[in-house]
């Protein structure tokens, strides 16, 4: 197994054997480890000393369901802290077959030049890619698949990444070759753009297989793992049939659905854009439409979907809950076709739908367009952001800068990043996830929605979120999709058995929590060295003071809850950079 | 003596007796004290919980030269930390005669409404001021002087403050009624704008006199103080004849003059804009032109000037070194008329010439205009910033946001604020001033230029800057102009004798340093509570890595120098908020 170093300053690449101590570290854990070791915490996120890490995990390539996520990581230009964002798709399965655990992109190409990285069995090439300049992600994939064959995996940025926008994500192809899988958050697409790297092609000609210590135990563990996914209702029915859109109706009922720029927690037109509405639309139009769709080969959850247009052709795939909320209810848009089109456009330009929706909510509040005007919002994304006009570059820097430029100081951001579609006033566990996670306002750090707790009450939310955050960090670092957590989050033996079988370790189930804690502790160490402290581990005033209709709640966790979060009694000793 | 509280939320005003413990605290010291006591450090700088403090000092109104500076203070929207900026002019002399040490503006008026505060002997009025909306500062003063008489003092913001721009300062009238005196830095004009307060009129009908404990000792101390100012060459000749423009030639020679967006430390056309050139231009045109001009009555230094246009009419007054550098050499402009016109325009819109020049340097680097194109730069300031177009609002947020939006990450800012016209690579003491001051990149926190040290060498610069910063903080908090420091900075007995005579104290000269330290310690306490830490006490990478021609220097102070700065051995114990 190797690390591939790609130096954009001198255009050299080098394969290094994966250090023994990185063996069990993948994805988010590997990002944290490499950033702490190799990137000066105070450095300019868009400068030559930052590094972009694209990593898979230790269980990828072994036919385990949902275990081949692609992580992108680096110092974030949006938050100024550590950032990891992950996506499904086929890239990591191909990388793993080439024996590559992670790609570390270093240095910075000459201004104005862009390159393509081509990974294949017989070597690595770094090629000038002027012909891809300014292309949308869909066209990049189309062009590269025409050139290198349909079986390649593609990782790319859109024009937004080239323009160094904080909205920019890194997009990867799914089984159909569509750039629909996004390492969306934190502006990592701008980090890739700042390096001068436009895209990565990963051929499917590798034949490396991760050595398995005990094949029999492994097959048994894999079978059990797949079985538990297929027998847990959340992972075998709800996600499979309704995808993440299934969350919209219950969150709307809880009053935690961002609506009209976080002014309401319920949307009066929620029924037009919820899981049932999406299901019915796919059912009615049929054609290319699909309720269940696997973003990577072998996934049994298949939470993804394909949304067809009126003629039955693919409009976008997938359409997820966070997008329905941030580009839908948060902008007052109650039209699935309109939201799907906005989503497709964002994917093509290469931007995060969450940060984009939050920034547009603020721009609407500043008078830029009326709520619900999907056509004007489409135009703003396409012609302003996509073309990089001054207004587009303002929005392109995200919610915080949009607010500062337009004179709005009521901003739903933590550590510079917009929170996602679980309003922490109505789903109070998210107060802690958003406030404390080293990732900034990021729901994927720990969704508390499915816990059996009264989400409107502050009691117990700190402990709940903290536990989930650790569980998520562990799964994130092993390359798992977070959607396995409803099935195995409370039963670590399933995952630990897989690790033991493959790597010959003898871990007890408790190992997994310690492993997750170590990752978060490293992330925090990086952030502290980058200038964060407890003051940044808080929600903005709007969530503490502004009552959220219809339940008229504020986020009222006690200062004590925040303070206790980083107790060494829970975490053990913290490392220091 | 009173504090005047002005609550913009309920439009009530109240005079409170000055608390005994504030007796010796003025200006910057009073800002620090009130902010630490009354403003939650994490609050939104443009929200209702921030406070704008406009303060004079304990020695104002007593006929002491240079002792009636006006300080504006609050939590800065530019830096996110504490901010105090001060100016000359006549406001504080009038405030003091009305018995008012400071005005504390609290709360926030209804959106869209703006008010005028009118202070006079028989009371305080808060009046709707819709007719002043959008007016430039010169017109505000003109209008108010026409209405209330030529003898009033005016404090106002321009349209930039109303638009909540980080560039916005607070402008005060001089003896001629021109709004030429600027509490320029840190976006305090936006804080005033966020309150809904457009202007303050201070009538000249007060008859309060600060009680003097020992008149005879006071008269003697005042005489001695004035004498030392009048016999020190810097304060009696250089400042008087050449103003601050006298610094341009030596700084150019040292290689510390910001030129072409901080790419050079010397300007090949420096001779066209230096102190001699300005002197000659005033001499030649005569008319309203003046070499020596006092911004407040009774100042014997008279560092200010009046720059006449070709017809001999006032073009701008004063034209200062920092403006010559930031709007001149830094933008490649070598034309005194052009710089004076830009200066006038900035005063009128109500923006800081330093932050504006630094932001424009970055915009030029991003391709917005060619260096040296004074006409286009004038247009950008007038039509974009002044009119609040999207581009104008971007520039209006200052250098950091301009850079982020335009994709430039080489930014000359510390704690979010642009440094001024002493490049810390060639004047190495300024490394410490810019990096460590709680004020962010602000030269007025401690200019090391006149110290007998090799400015190109790192040795001794930390101690030098630290001492000067403490001395400056002390003088800033007593209401003195920092230009008295060349005369009395090393002889604290002059100032301490004045304090003892007026207030009946019995301080030794050493008291002054302890007094200054206390102010900085409070400021730091506020900043720490607001989220700053040692990571923010550093220069950006460009000054550490990019060699500055012609001497090809970088700022190379040791990490140890930075670390030792906050030694408790020097400072004593730090308070904690």
Automatic annotation (TrEMBL), chains A, B:
The keyword Phosphoprotein does not apply. Residues 1-206 form the Aldehyde ferredoxin oxidoreductase N-terminal domain. Its cofactor is [4Fe-4S] cluster; tungstopterin. It comes from the Bacteria. Pfam families: AFOR_C, AFOR_N. Belongs to the AOR/FOR family. This is Aldehyde ferredoxin oxidoreductase.
């Amino acid at each position: 197994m190797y690390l591939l170093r790609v130096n954009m300053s001198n255009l050299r690449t080098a394969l290094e054997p994966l250090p023994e101590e990185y063996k069990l570290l993948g994805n988010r854990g590997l990002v944290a480890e490499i950033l702490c070791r190799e990137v000066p915490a105070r450095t300019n996120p868009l400068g030559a000393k930052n590094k972009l890490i694209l990593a898979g995990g230790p269980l990828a390539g072994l036919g385990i369901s949902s275990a081949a996520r692609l992580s992108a990581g680096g110092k974030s230009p949006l938050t100024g802290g550590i950032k990891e964002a992950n996506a499904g798709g086929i890239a990591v399965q191909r990388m793993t077959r080439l024996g590559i655990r992670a790609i570390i992109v270093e240095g910075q190409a000459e201004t104005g030049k862009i390159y393509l990285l081509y990974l294949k069995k017989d070597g690595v090439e770094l090629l000038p890619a002027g012909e891809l300049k300014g292309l949308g992600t869909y066209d990049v994939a189309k062009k590269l698949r025409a050139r290198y064959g349909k079986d390649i995996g593609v990782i790319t940025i859109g024009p937004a990444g080239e323009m160094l926008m904080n909205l920019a994500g890194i997009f990867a192809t799914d089984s159909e070759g569509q750039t629909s899988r996004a390492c969306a958050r934190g502006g990592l697409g701008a980090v890739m753009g700042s390096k001068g790297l436009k895209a990565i092609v990963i051929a499917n000609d590798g034949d490396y297989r991760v050595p398995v210590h005990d094949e029999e135990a492994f097959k048994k563990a894999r079978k059990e793992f797949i079985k538990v996914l297929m027998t847990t209702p959340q992972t075998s029915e709800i996600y499979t049939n309704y995808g993440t859109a299934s969350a919209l109706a219950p969150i709307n009922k809880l009053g935690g659905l961002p609506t009209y720029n976080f002014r309401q927690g319920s949307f009066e037109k929620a029924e037009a854009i919820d899981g049932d509405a999406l299901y019915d639309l796919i059912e009615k139009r049929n054609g290319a439409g699909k309720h269940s769709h696997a973003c990577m080969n072998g996934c049994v959850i298949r939470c993804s979907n394909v949304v067809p247009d009126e003629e039955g052709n693919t409009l976008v795939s997938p359409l997820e809950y966070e997008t329905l909320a941030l580009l839908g209810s948060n902008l007052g848009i109650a039209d699935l076709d309109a939201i799907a089109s906005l989503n497709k456009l964002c994917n093509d330009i290469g931007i995060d739908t969450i940060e984009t929706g939050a920034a547009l909510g603020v721009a609407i509040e500043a008078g830029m367009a009326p709520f619900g005007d999907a056509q004007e919002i489409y135009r703003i994304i396409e012609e302003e952001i996509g073309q990089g006009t001054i207004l587009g570059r303002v929005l392109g820097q995200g919610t915080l800068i949009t607010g500062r430029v337009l004179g709005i100081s009521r901003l739903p951001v933590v550590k510079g990043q917009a929170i996602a579609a679980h309003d922490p006033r109505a789903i109070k566990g998210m107060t802690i996830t958003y406030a404390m996670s080293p990732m900034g306002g990021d729901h994927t750090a720990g969704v508390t929605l499915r816990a059996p707790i009264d989400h409107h009450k502050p009691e117990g939310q700190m402990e709940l979120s903290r536990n989930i955050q650790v569980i998520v960090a562990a799964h994130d670092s092993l390359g798992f999709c977070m959607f396995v957590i409803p099935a195995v989050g409370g039963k670590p033996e399933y995952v630990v058995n897989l690790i033991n079988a493959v790597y010959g370790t003898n871990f007890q189930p408790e190992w997994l929590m310690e492993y997750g804690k170590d990752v978060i502790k490293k992330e925090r160490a990086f952030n502290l060295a980058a200038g964060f402290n407890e003051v940044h581990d808080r929600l903005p005033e709007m969530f503490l003071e502004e009552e959220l209709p219809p339940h008229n709640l504020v986020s009222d966790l006690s200062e004590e809850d925040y303070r206790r979060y980083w107790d060494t009694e829970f975490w053990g000793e913290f490392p220091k950079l």
